[in-house]
Amino acid sequence: MSNYHIKHLEEYYQVYRKSTRNPEGFWEEIAEEHFVWRKKWDNVLHWDFKKPEVKWFDGAKLNITENCIDRHLPTRGDKTAILFEPNDPTEKPEHITYRQLHKRVSKMAYVLKEKGIQKGDRVCIYLPMIPELAIALLACARIGAIHSVVFAGFSANALSTRINDSDCKMVITSDGSYRGAKTIDLKGIVDKALEDCPSVETVLVVKRIGSEIHMKKNRDYWIQPLLNEAYGDLVAEIMDAEDPLFILYTSGSTGKPKGMVHTCGGYMVYTAYTFKNIFQYKEDDVFWCTADIGWITGHSYILYGPLANGATTVMFEGVPSYPDFGRFWEIVEKHKVNQFYTAPTAIRALAKENLDFVEKYDLSSLKVLGSVGEPINEEAWHWYNNNVGKKHSPIVDTWWQTETGGIMISPIPYVTPTTPTYATLPFIGIQPALMDEEGKEIQGNQVDGRLCIKFPWPSMARTIWGDHDRYRDTYFSAYENKYFTGDGAHRDAVGYYRITGRVDDVIIVSGHNLGTAPIEDSINEHPAVAESAIVGFPHDVKGNALYGYVMLKETGESRDRDNVRKEINQQITEQIGPIAKLDKIQFVSGLPKTRSGKIMRRILRKIASKETSNLGDTSTLLNPEVVDEIMENVL
Ligand code: WTA
Fold first, then answer.
1. What is the DSSP string of 467-521?
2. Fewer Cβ in 10 A, N or C end of the chain?
3. What atom in ligand 1 is closest to the CA of residue 295?
4. What is the pLDDT of residue 251?
5. Coil, strand, or helix at residue 561?
6. Tens digits of residue pLDDT in 247-275
7. Structural domains in the chain?
8. DSSP summary character for residue 610
9. ipTM of the complex
10. Has residue 97 got a pLDDT over 80?
11. Is any ligand 1 atom within 6 A of the Cβ of residue 513?
């Protein structure tokens, strides 16, 4: 019997040892006993981190939707698969059973096929958090189309970049979306994006807000009439375990976003297994992850992981502050949520509000609390533990990445004793290493280093869409034979890991990864700007906020500074999205540079964070005099 459900600490250590001594045997047992395959694999694992090439369950045939839907029909047909909670609390929630989900996914898949989508085609999904979003992903998976979800808060420009990078043939969107008291014109954004996307042949539009929109002839179709005509029992396409399941874009420290490619077999096995254990999911539990499906957290832990376990998963359309700051807790009470998974930035925002918003509601159903996306600070951890968990729901601080597909370092609740701000122990099968700057692995405990992973795990991304060299250079070239995460970490006396944050030029703002380069590129396009540099500085709700140092051109010096600030943020909003706006913009006469011309961000970061007592050596700078000027005028 495989160890699918770990229940105590000794068992964790025993299974962990088994999974690292004989990873292939371990994952083979899990895959064999807990999933349905049309054909078994020829090989459990083939890997070479030099190329890099990783294949799990190669030769196996399956369809992930048969695992997430069809196989539950005999035993869980009438169980709620997706529990949809609308933005407006007075609108009725929708309980979609596994049987209904099967029908709706089949119909959507049928429509995609009718509109010419075939196995391997890319479909861009740009939808709010409504049931059709989940159904669209599953419909793609059903016919073997590769979904590329773009978070519906991204701008037209960001959307078209992503559509073009993977040559999507279709876009699925809605007329608009609700976000608290506001509505957003999603279709308008899509229309703008598509001015520049020659690969898109068809746009399917879900009606959500009932606004007047423009429909382009022979390109745009309302989806409902097509669904009404569609066939409700579409047989799933048989896929290879290593066929791509989806592309999801993440920010890099330089240049354009990276389309991380995840494949069918390994991703399914690992997300399902982590979901079961890290949330200790039991048959009748109601699980709620507050992320948006536009991020990896939503892909893995709203959709695929829960459904592969036959779980009930909540999808929430709204925001934590609407109609008031009690909304999350109202939903927990209403649906008797058992596992609640959110981000530190949400916790910090709610912790600022009156405690009445939490105390009003009955939260006694909660058994496990989760955190993801950025380091959770001690204060937020305690607030979450005291006021939401009432000190009896363990907090799982889960560290992972878009690239890793599933949770990598995390406590197992009721199994691993937790410590505030520590992601604690590597999950089953995960072999972390801390590296020093010379590239040597640091042994022992009470040490700090750069976090790498030494051995493949089933849900790791296989490549960057269209750019395998970049995949190798970004993740496999810093340290020989290791996957480099881009994060720093501390390992304490008992071997627990604490993630200390990015060591590259990615800044995490409200849990969203932002690369400095695309933001700087956007600022530099402003006609008055000569050059700029972005750094993060601590912010009590967002974790980090963005600080921009901007040098104007001589011709721009006479411009009104406040206007330039506004225009810069306007430009960033249009090109990337409002999440990348700068909180502070300081105008400078120069940027500190090394003799090789590289901007010394380390110094700028310290100044923005007001940690100027120890700036380090500035004598190697080309222009040390600008440092004093920048410090004097810091905002
Ligand atoms: C950060 C989100 C500390 C980290 C699933 C990582 C965290 C990046 C944690 C990936 C955590 C995520 N503690 N830091 N529990 N979880 N991070 O790709 O810097 O959106 O590299 O994936 O978020 O962000 P991504």
1. -HHHHHHHHTSSSTTSEEEEEEEEE-TTS-EEEEEESSSEEEETTEEEEHHHHHH
2. N
3. 20
4. 83
5. helix
6. 999 987 666 899 999 999 999 999 999 99
7. 9-319+394-489 (3.40.50.12780), 510-633 (3.30.300.30)
8. T
9. 1.00
10. yes
11. yes
